[in-house]
Amino acid sequence: MNKLFTRMMLFTGIAFLVMTCGRGNYSEKTPIHLNPNMDSQGKYKAQSESNFFVDGASMRTPVEGTVARGELRADDAFYHGKDASGEFITSAPMDVTAEMVLRGEERYDIYCSACHGVKADGKGKILFYEYPIPPANFYDERIKKLSDGHMFNAITAGWLNMPSFKAQVSVEDRWAIISYIRSLQKN
Ligand code: HEC
After folding, report:
1. What angle do CA 12, 13, 17 make, to 5 degrees?
2. Beta bridge partners of 159
3. What's residue 125's pLDDT?
């Protein structure tokens, strides 16, 4: 019994030494990785080179003539504010509801009011910081006459000195904001 105990102690001692020896030391050899947990796996990083594909690029473009699920944007009026001939549509391609205008007000206050002003008179807080180009005043006759499609495009693509808000404001919300601006212009 005693002998067995000594052996077990000796074994544990050696095992401990083997496991802990050399920790923190540098080695040129690949460490033994008992549970790799998918830490190292073959993968391509964005924009990296590939010698598998003929064109040498790891990032692939969609197969020609295909559309990813949920990405079909065939409705020109809704997604681009344009009609079939590519002209800007004069009014929004949906019925304007009270909810839509309220949603537009909320989104306008978040994304547009800093420049165009809470009252839409072009006197947003940004003027206080000496923004070099005056943001449009939505009560200007010229702006009142802009088509809904043109406004939609200004939000989507940006307009002269105004940045694009495509990333921040969804397509539905862009139309909602326009409906809100129109409701203000009627007053
Ligand atoms: C960072 C400031 C800024 C924000 C935020 C901003 N705009 Fe503008 N916007 C401008 C400026 C500046 C102009 C005038 C651009 C010019 O004439 O160079 C402008 C012009 C416009 C015009 C007039 C386009 C034309 O044809 O003259 C519309 C419409 C417009 N903005 C809508 C919006 C809407 C809607 C939002 C919110 C989603 C928004 N803007 C947010 C700065 C801003």
Report:
1. 115
2. 162
3. 94
| Among the listed residues 108, 126, 128, 127, the one whose alpha carbon sits nearest the alpha carbon of residue 118 | 108
d(CA 125, CA 106): 17
For the record, the structure tokens of 113 come out as 């009011």
pTM across the whole model: 0.75
Q: How far is 177 from 78, CA to CA, in rounded Å?
A: 14
Q: What is the mean pLDDT of residues 47-63?
A: 93
Phi-psi domain of 184 (left: phi exceeds 0; alpha: psi -120 through 50; beta: other): alpha
Ligand 1 pocket, mutate which of 107, 159, 166 (most atoms under 8 A from CB) = 159
State which of 88, 109, 110, 116 you would mutate to test the pocket of ligand 1, scoring each by most atoms of that ligand within 8 A of its C-beta: 116
Read off the pLDDT band of 178 (50, 70, 90): very high
Does ligand 1 have an atom closer than 6 angstroms to the CB of 77?
no
Q: Whose CA is nearest to atom 1 of ligand 1?
A: 115
Q: Cα separation of 133 and 136, whole Å?
A: 9
CA–centroid distance, residue 116 to ligand 1 (Å): 7
Domain 76-185 falls under CATH 1.10.760.10: yes
pLDDT at 162 over 90: yes
